[in-house]
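FORM 12-B: Structure-to-Sequence Request
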């Protein structure tokens, strides 16, 4: 098999002379400095670096502006909106808000639906109650938004600058 133009059989165009495995991204930021996300937040099921960075960008550098978890859910487009008609009583998600944050919540929910035993049990129970998968995902997004808000606005976390200073002296 002949290699594509600009690539060698053993290398990569982005990393000449290095194996293809250099395409993998590093697990953390360069130099070992801590990220802006609290470790508790990154330890949650379904939260990885990309999801965390998206949600941190949504919150911004002033998380105090979000007074309640309901305002965070509205900002992420995960707040319920009444979509009832006649005798049919139901809700849908708010279409407004930050679409990238909504997508990040969706990714967390899908990971949990396929890997977390508590979420699997919840999905089975709600399916037995006659809920559709769309309605179940809506409920789970709201739950995840509440959990993320609590993790990101918790006041007892150590600031990133202090952590970096401790690592530099250690």
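FORM 12-B RESPONSE
SEQUENCE OUT:
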């Amino acid at each position: 098999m002949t290699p594509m133009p600009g690539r060698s059989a053993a290398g990569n165009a982005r990393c000449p002379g290095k194996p293809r495995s250099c395409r993998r991204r590093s697990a953390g930021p360069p130099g070992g400095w801590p990220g802006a996300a609290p470790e508790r937040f990154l330890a949650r099921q379904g939260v990885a670096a990309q999801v965390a960075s998206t949600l941190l960008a949504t919150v911004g550098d002033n998380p105090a502006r979000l007074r309640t978890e309901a305002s965070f859910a509205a900002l992420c487009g995960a707040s319920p909106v009444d979509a009832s008609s006649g005798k049919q009583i139901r809700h849908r998600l708010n279409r407004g808000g930050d679409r990238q944050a909504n997508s990040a919540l969706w990714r967390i929910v899908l990971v949990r639906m396929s890997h977390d035993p508590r979420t699997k049990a919840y999905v089975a129970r709600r399916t037995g109650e006659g809920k559709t998968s769309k309605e179940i995902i809506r409920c789970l997004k709201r739950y995840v938004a509440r959990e993320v808000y609590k993790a990101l606005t918790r006041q007892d976390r150590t600031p990133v600058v202090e952590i970096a200073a401790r690592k530099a002296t250690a």
